[in-house]
Amino acid sequence: MIKTEWTIGETYPAGGTVFYDKGEESDGWRYLSVAPSSTEFMAPYDDDWYGLFGDDCDSIETGKKNTKILADYFIQKNKQGTAALLCTEQQIGGFSDWFLPSIAELTQMYINRYEKGLGNFTEEAY
Q1: What phi and psi values does residue 72 have, to the nearest 5 degrees?
Q2: What is the pLDDT of residue 126?
Q3: Contact at 8 Å (CB) between 33 and 12?
Q4: What is this structure's pTM?
């Protein structure tokens, strides 16, 4: 039997850990997972992107859109190695739809993983 449902804290097929379940599949997705720590990378900070987003950029479901906006902007500016570009280039566990989390997605990651002791987060990360 193929598994079709996961709970927060379980490993998703891509190898990351589920941190959000919206309850049902819609718009092509149901779960958000954090990538495995083995895929972590460092990227230089670049603040040359302020003003790219509208008012609805910090809610659940906007991280993917925000990452695309940033990646397209940095491609246009010929800036390589940014976190947004590196995320869009990731191939992890057969998945290529990785993105930077929005503030609300990051908050859910914190609430559903760090506060519950799921994953191997450290104080230094916060």
Answers
A1: -60, -40
A2: 44
A3: yes
A4: 0.81
